[in-house]
Amino acid sequence: MKNIFINNKSFAIPSKWNELTKKQLLYFSFLLSQKFTKEEIVVLLTMFFSKYGVRKTSKIEPLIFKELEKHFNFIFEIKLTVNLLPKIRIRFKRFYGPTQALSNMTFEQFFVFSESYFDNFTKTGSQYSLDLLIASLYTRQQYKFEPLQVEQNAKVLKHLSEKEKYAILIFYQGNRNFIAKQFNKLFSSGDTDSKKEYDFLGLVELLNNKDVSKNNQIKNTNIYEIFTYLTNLKSK
Question: What is the CA radius of gyration of the chain?
């Protein structure tokens, strides 16, 4: 956190994504889901963190907003890896989300489900795809992904508020960016979209060494183990 001074009054703002509180993340997700300009977002964030009302904010010199802009620049490069919505209770049902940096996700859960729905959402803006993405991340049993329950769970999770959905989307995007940076030899473009050079079945064949009895074990393997193995393989 860092302190900002305006008109002899100070207020604290986060300096990076992982310093956000749940309340702040939900506000950020609301702003990023709307079609605000960068300048409008800076004004709204100043109001939010400083407790200035509309009238008081209008009296702030434009140059101060220019100065503030650099302090809020971090939000335009999503790096959130901490899950601030680890548990969701909706329609009398409880759901459990991924741990920090998606560290508990399986190979199948990531490649077959969440990435497919994320890709479709970014291309089409389909809210159903966003609901399915969230249902592929959040499970009824903690740390246990159930592929056959994804569509059923999506019917419940679709009732989350828009800002909650976008907060989860931001969390997922932040972790995709983190994974791309951690495994930069594998994702050389700096974006996990470069994983498309691999298809799921092709990777299973690569990993099972022609032993199909290993397929279920591979599908349930942690993604970090898979990415580490693929990175080492690519380095040879």
Answer: 20
Q: Which residue pairs, CB below 8 angstroms and at least 24 apart, start in 204-209?
A: 206/233
Q: 42-85 pLDDT, tens per residue? A: 888 888 887 776 566 666 666 677 777 788 889 889 999 999 99
How far CA 153 is from CA of 127, 128, 159, in Å, comes to 14, 12, 11
> Measured between alpha carbons, how far is 55 from 171 in angstroms, rounded to an integer?
34
Return d(Cα 113, Cα 194) in angstroms, integer: 17
Closest CA to 154 of 176, 133, 175: 133
Angle at alpha carbon of residue 137, lines to 133 and 141, rounded to 5°: 135
Length of the chain: 236
CA distances from 38 to 46, 57, 70 (A): 12, 16, 11
Neighbouring C-beta atoms of residue 191, cutoff 10 Å = 11
* Alpha-carbon span 25 to 168, nearest angstrom: 10
Amino acid occupying residue 173: Q
Q: So what's the pLDDT on residue 194?
A: 44
Among 174, 107, 104, CA closest to 139: 104
Helices 127-137 and 115-124 pack at an angle, to 10 degrees, of 160
